[in-house]
Specification:
This protein is α/β, with parallel strands linked by helices and about 325 residues long. It folds into three domains: about 45 residues, no CATH class; about 200 residues, no CATH class; about 70 residues, no CATH class. Helix content is about 50%, strand content about 15%. The protein contains 15 helices and seven strands. The chain has a seven-stranded mixed sheet with strand order 1-2-5-4-3-6-7, with helices on both faces. The longest helix is centred in the last third of the chain and has 24 residues. It is globular, with a radius of gyration of 23 Å. It starts with 14 loop residues before the first helix and ends with a helix.
C-alpha cells in the first residue's frame, strides 16, 4: 500500500507518517515498529537488497561501455572478489574536456546507505561557466592508496594539458598523491577551506581579517596583495605566518603560476555533492545510475542553451560586457 510512495528517493516518508496515514485512511492503529518494517520491506521490493546491488556492477559496467564507447571505466576488487573501488569517466566527459578550462576540481563526500563508502567527484567549468563533470568514483574509505588509484585513472583518461591545475581542500593525502602523479601540474588550495582552518587555529582575529583575506585571495595585482598582507600582519602576525606557510601561490590568484580565472574555491564540485544528498542513501547501483542521469540532464540542458545562443558569448557574459 505504501510502496509507490518510495519510488522517488527524494521524497521522505517516515514510519510516523505511515502510521498517521493508516489511521486516517483505514482507521487502523498500527505500532511504530510495524510501520518501520513496512517501509523497509517496501524499499526492498523496489530496489532489492543493498548487498545484491554490488552484484549488478559488472553488467552495469558492460552496458556503460557499450552505450558510451571510449569511456574510461575501472573497477577494483579484493582478492576474495569483494568490491573495493569503481571509477567512471564517460566518453562524453573525456571529449568535452578539451573545450573546457584546464582545471580539475576534486571533492569527496560520505555515502549514507547500509554499506558506508565515499563518493568522489571531479569536475571543471565549460566556456559558458557551467559545471562540467569529468569523473566520479565510489571507494571504501579515504586513504593514500585510494587517492593514488583515483588520480592515476584520472590521468589515464584525460592526460595533461598546458596550464592545467588541480584544486581541492587541504587534504594531506591528496597533496602528497597529486604531487606524485601529476609532477608537472600545479595544485592549489580552495581558499574557503584554507580560511576555515585559520578560524579553527586563530579564533580571535578571523572576524576582523575575513574580508581582507578574501579580497587578498581574489586580487589580480601583487602590489595590492602585499599591501593587504601588511594589514593582516598589523592585526595578527600569526595569521600572516600561517598563510605564508600554506604558500601564497597555493591560494592567491596574483601569485598562482597558471591563470586560475574565477576558480578559487572547490564550490562547484561541492554543488554536485549537495545535489546528491538524498541519493547518497541509495544502494550503490541505484546511486551510480542517479549520478549518470543527473549529469546527462545537465549536459543536455547546457547543450540546448549553446545551440540557441546567437551571440559570440552566452547571454550572461554578453550582458557583463
Amino acid at each position: 500500500m505504501v510502496k509507490q510512495k518510495f519510488k522517488n528517493h527524494k521524497r521522505k516518508y517516515s514510519a510516523t507518517e505511515i502510521r498517521s496515514d493508516m489511521k486516517e485512511d483505514l482507521g487502523m492503529d498500527l505500532t511504530y515498529i510495524m510501520c518501520w518494517r513496512a517501509k523497509e520491506q517496501a524499499i526492498e521490493y523496489l530496489r532489492g537488497k543493498p548487498s545484491a546491488s554490488y552484484g549488478k556492477l559488472p553488467a552495469y559496467i558492460h552496458v556503460l561501455n557499450t552505450t558510451y564507447p571510449g569511456s574510461h571505466i575501472r573497477m577494483k576488487k579484493h582478492e576474495d572478489n569483494e568490491f573495493l573501488y569503481i571509477f567512471i569517466a564517460l566518453t562524453t566527459f573525456i571529449q568535452g574536456f578539451d573545450h573546457c578550462r584546464p582545471m580539475i576540481l576534486v571533492d569527496a563526500s560520505y555515502l549514507r546507505g547500509l554499506y558506508n563508502g565515499t563518493f568522489v567527484a571531479a569536475c571543471t567549468m565549460d566556456g559558458a561557466g557551467h559545471i562540467f563533470p569529468l569523473a566520479y568514483e565510489i571507494v571504501d574509505s579515504e586513504n593514500d592508496a585510494f587517492w593514488t588509484w583515483f588520480f592515476q585513472n584520472l590521468k589515464e583518461a584525460y592526460g595533461e594539458r598546458e596550464h592545467m591545475c588541480v584544486v581541492f581542500d587541504r587534504n594531506p593525502s591528496i597533496i602528497k598523491v597529486v604531487a606524485g602523479v601529476y609532477k608537472n601540474v600545479p595544485h592549489y588550495t580552495c581558499m574557503w577551506h584554507l580560511w576555515v582552518n585559520v578560524k579553527k587555529k586563530i579564533r580571535k582575529s578571523h572576524n576582523a581579517l575575513s574580508e581582507i583575506f578574501y579580497t587578498m585571495a581574489k586580487s589580480y595585482s601583487k602590489s595590492e596583495f602585499h599591501n593587504l598582507m601588511e594589514k593582516v600582519e598589523v592585526v595578527d602576525v600569526r595569521v600572516k605566518n600561517y598563510l605564508e606557510l600554506a604558500g601564497y601561490d597555493k591560494w592567491a590568484r596574483s601569485c598562482a603560476t597558471v591563470h586560475r580565472g574565477w576558480t578559487l574555491t572547490s564550490n562547484i564540485v561541492e554543488s554536485i555533492n549537495a545535489a546528491l544528498v538524498s541519493a547518497r542513501e541509495l544502494p550503490i547501483y541505484d546511486f551510480l545510475e542517479e549520478v549518470r542521469l543527473m549529469f546527462g540532464r545537465w549536459n543536455c540542458e547546457n547543450r540546448q542553451e549553446a545551440l540557441y545562443t546567437r551571440t559570440n558569448l552566452i547571454e550572461k557574459f554578453q550582458a557583463i560586457l
